């Protein structure tokens, strides 16, 4: 049977055909959308973590728990200090770099315009650990720390919002009422999966944050980059800090686990999407099976004529198997198209990196072809069971 008469038959029964492919379309849509969104979120996490982020350990004071898919600090102790960072660097052989940090909350403004930007006190090692560089100017250096300089490196959105230009190096930004000279602008990073804008940040020397702004001697955390095995480095850091503090008033964890605050939500979403996809594929398979079986009885004359003019049972079997697969593929194309569109829209509005769910689309499409073929086996066998002279006897 040629493609033209087949399409003509589909057009004559388009409502029935449409209903038969809806299940497959929903299954493909759910699976592709799930894999697309999780892939896009994973891309966003990796971008937020930086090139080496997946291998970084973070030490934070107090306890952290995962509650409802979010990582929440449930206790804080002002016991993590700069000497701890130095000790980790000097006494842990599995550690190559450490980068202590302190988050402060001054007013950030320039020219009468205020921003809700996050301000971090950092050391030069932060740039090496995260792998993120500056788009223009330079990052913080050792002289900035030693001389407690009032210098700042700002995010791209801070530059755009306050100065209306991409590289305001040499200009001044005010933290409270203290002037900080801008020495660099970070490259664009976007938002992480929790929605935090990583380009709306100001980085200043750690010493300036601790002495000039917060006036405290404790840290908010220490990033640790292992030189080899991550698990071994984690054990060494934990053992060292237990000896220094005498009690476990800190948390040592993979940075990926702490930063990935929506990990549990992603897993739940993935499981629900798979369940929906399985149900939809099942409904789609039954729909195609029912429609194709019905079409066999409606097309007995056609089958009889084809057999009378030399078509073999194998030809009839292939015809109905092909039609069944074609129905499933039609549904799959609609499902993939809408899923890719949804993933792109969600990624755009969430500020995630561009991600095309090719793998999800290919897997979903392959499953739909398989389901189409399996659903067509019984109708195809049924179509070959009729003898031409019996079918054409009453015509």
Describe the protein's topology:
Blueprint: H1 3-12, H2 14-49, E1 57-61, E2 63-67, E3 70-75, H3 82-91, E4 95-104, E5 108-110, E6 113-115, E7 118-122, H4 125-130, E8 134-137, H5 142-146, E9 151-154, H6 156-163, E10 172-175, E11 178-186, E12 201-205, H7 206-214, E13 221-226, H8 230-245, E14 250-254, H9 255-259, H10 263-298, H11 300-308, H12 313-350, H13 358-383, H14 388-392
Parallel strand pairs: 7-12, 9-11
Antiparallel strand pairs: 1-13, 1-14, 2-3, 4-7, 4-13, 5-6, 5-10, 8-11, 9-12, 10-11
Helix pairs in contact: 2-10, 2-12, 2-13, 3-8, 10-12, 10-13, 12-13
Explain this structure.
By secondary structure, the chain is an alpha+beta fold. The protein folds into 2 domains: 180 residues, no CATH class; 128 residues, no CATH class. Helices cover 55% and strands 19% of the residues. The chain has 14 helices and 14 strands. A hairpin with a 2-residue loop joins strand 2 and strand 3. Helix 2 packs across helix 12. The longest helix has 38 residues. The chain is elongated.
Concise account of the structure shown:
This is Putative ABC transport system permease protein. The protein is built from 14 helices and 14 strands.
């Amino acid at each position: 049977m040629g493609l033209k008469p087949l399409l003509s038959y589909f057009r004559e029964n388009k409502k029935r055909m449409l209903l038969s492919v809806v299940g497959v379309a929903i299954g493909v849509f759910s699976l592709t959308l799930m894999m697309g969104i999780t892939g896009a979120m994973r891309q966003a996490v990796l971008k937020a973590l930086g090139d080496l982020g997946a291998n970084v350990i973070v030490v934070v004071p107090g306890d952290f728990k995962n509650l409802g898919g979010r990582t929440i600090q449930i206790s804080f102790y002002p016991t993590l200090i700069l000497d701890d960072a130095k000790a980790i660097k000097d006494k842990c052989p599995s550690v190559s770099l450490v980068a202590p940090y302190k988050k402060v909350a001054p007013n950030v403004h320039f020219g009468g315009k205020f921003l809700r930007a996050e301000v971090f006190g950092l050391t030069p090692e932060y740039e090496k650990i995260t792998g993120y560089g500056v788009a223009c100017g330079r990052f913080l250096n050792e002289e900035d720390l030693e001389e407690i300089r009032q210098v700042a490196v700002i995010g791209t959105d801070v530059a755009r919002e306050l100065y209306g230009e991409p590289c305001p190096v040499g200009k001044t930004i005010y933290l409270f009422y203290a002037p900080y000279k801008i020495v660099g602008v970070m490259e664009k990073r976007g938002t992480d999966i929790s929605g935090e804008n990583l380009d709306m940040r100001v980085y200043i020397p750690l010493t300036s944050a601790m002495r000039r702004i917060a006036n405290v001697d404790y840290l908010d955390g220490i990033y640790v980059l292992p030189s080899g095995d991550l698990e071994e480095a984690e054990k060494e850091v934990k053992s060292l800090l237990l000896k220094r503090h005498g009690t476990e008033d800190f948390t040592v964890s993979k940075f990926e686990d702490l930063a990935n605050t929506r990990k549990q939500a992603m897993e739940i979403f993935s499981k629900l999407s798979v369940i929906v996809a399985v149900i939809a594929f099942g409904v789609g398979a039954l729909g195609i099976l029912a429609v194709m079986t019905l079409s066999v009885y409606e097309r007995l004359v056609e089958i009889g004529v084809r057999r009378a003019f030399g078509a073999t049972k194998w030809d009839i079997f292939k015809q109905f198997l092909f039609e069944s697969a074609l129905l499933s593929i039609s549904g799959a194309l609609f499902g993939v198209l809408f899923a890719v569109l949804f993933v792109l829209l969600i990624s755009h509005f969430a500020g995630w990196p561009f991600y095309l769910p090719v793998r999800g689309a290919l897997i979903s499409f392959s499953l739909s072809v398989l389901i189409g073929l399996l659903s067509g086996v019984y109708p195809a066998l049924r179509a070959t069971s009729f003898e031409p002279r019996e079918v054409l006897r009453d015509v």
